[in-house]
Amino acid sequence: MRELRSDRTAQAIIAGHAFIQDLRRGHHEFGLDAPSGLRVAAAFTELATTI
Hints:
Blueprint: H1 7-25, H2 39-50
């Protein structure tokens, strides 16, 4: 595993991980209509069309 060379990199990884966990648990409005196994994929599809 590669080292996290700066605090900024570690912060980005931690924030991304927390966001994915929140999506899986249904804490965001994205992907709520999808089954729990496909919630993350549906959320990223919705986010991509929004951006």
